[in-house]
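Practice problem 4.
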């Protein structure tokens, strides 16, 4: 029997939709990074932009070996900048401490930076920006601006984090990413090749630099991920490749890694990349534009020419890693014959 004493004005109204069609069923957990010291943004570049803005720096030091799109951050801030070189251990060739009105950007290339290296660098620079866009699971550094990109590690349209202890809250408009999600859905049904152009359209939209907040769609997806499983798979694949390829790799990768983005393979075979692509092992050519702004005998030039970023992410198992190893060794043996 209905409660005749129940009145419409007694209902507590919420901004919530009830009924209608069913939605995607995503487990609701927690984002990997959350809390009062975390700013959720749409890209890694947006994280860098807001870090520099918060630091009030007037000049930025940044490495030659980086994506040119990073320079989009500088123009709207009317910032003076200067490049520095890195040595064969990815350490800055930079022999002084920066001042309070300067900022220093260091990239944790492929997650190769050790904790001791990072702490030593941080102590030399008051406004230290730790670019972990290639090392999502690297821990934030106390007193530094730590920067992350979710888009490089997970199937989201946008997403990044700026983390700094005591950072002031930044109110940001949220990105709207659902119109650009077709490549994620299409890949499931038709494969990566079929969705390639749609993915590039999503990438191209970030050419129009707009440092805003993370979309609700990406935030919701990132709340559904089993991060410990992702870490374990990435680390397993990384160390498996290293056990098989370290004798061919000219990089020193002997310290521990925290589930990096890729396995960086430095090998002096210019045609190897094209050969791997012909075997459906897609290896991007990172930062070719670096070649035009560095000396031909520099380490940056060498990296841009010969580095292979081998996929090790959570989609793949050891059988996939063996497939990669087999083709690299087969190519290497054919060169030696």
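Answer key:
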């Amino acid at each position: 029997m209905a409660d005749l004493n129940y009145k419409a004005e007694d209902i507590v109204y919420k901004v919530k939709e009830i009924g209608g069609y069913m939605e995607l069923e995503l487990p609701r957990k927690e984002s990997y990074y959350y809390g009062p010291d975390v700013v959720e943004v749409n890209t890694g570049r947006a994280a860098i932009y807001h870090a520099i803005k918060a630091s009030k720096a007037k000049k930025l030091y940044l490495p030659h070996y980086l994506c040119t799109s990073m320079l989009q951050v500088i123009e709207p801030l009317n910032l003076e900048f200067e490049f520095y070189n890195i040595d064969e251990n990815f350490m800055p060739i930079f022999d002084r401490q920066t001042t309070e009105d300067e900022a220093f950007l260091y990239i944790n290339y492929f997650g190769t930076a050790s904790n001791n290296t990072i702490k030593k660098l941080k102590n030399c620079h008051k406004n230290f920006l730790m670019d972990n866009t290639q090392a999502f699971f690297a821990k934030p550094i106390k007193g530094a601006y730590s920067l992350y990109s979710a888009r490089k590690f997970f199937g989201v349209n946008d997403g990044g984090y700026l983390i700094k202890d005591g950072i002031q809250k930044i109110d940001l408009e949220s990105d709207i990413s659902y119109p650009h999600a077709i490549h994620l859905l299409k890949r499931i049904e038709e494969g990566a090749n079929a969705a390639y152009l749609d993915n590039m359209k999503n990438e191209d939209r970030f050419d129009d630099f707009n440092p805003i907040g993370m979309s609700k769609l990406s935030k919701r997806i990132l709340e559904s991920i089993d991060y410990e499983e992702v870490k374990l798979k990435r680390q397993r694949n990384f160390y498996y490749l290293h056990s098989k390829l370290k004798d061919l790799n000219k990089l020193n990768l002997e310290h521990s890694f925290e589930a990096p983005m890729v396995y960086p393979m430095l090998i002096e075979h210019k045609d190897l990349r094209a050969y791997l692509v012909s075997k459906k092992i897609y290896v991007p050519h990172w930062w070719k534009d670096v070649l035009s702004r560095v000396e031909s005998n520099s380490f940056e030039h060498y990296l841009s020419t010969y580095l292979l970023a081998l996929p090790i992410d959570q989609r793949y198992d050891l059988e996939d890693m063996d497939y990669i190893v087999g083709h690299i060794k087969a190519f290497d043996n054919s060169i030696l014959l």
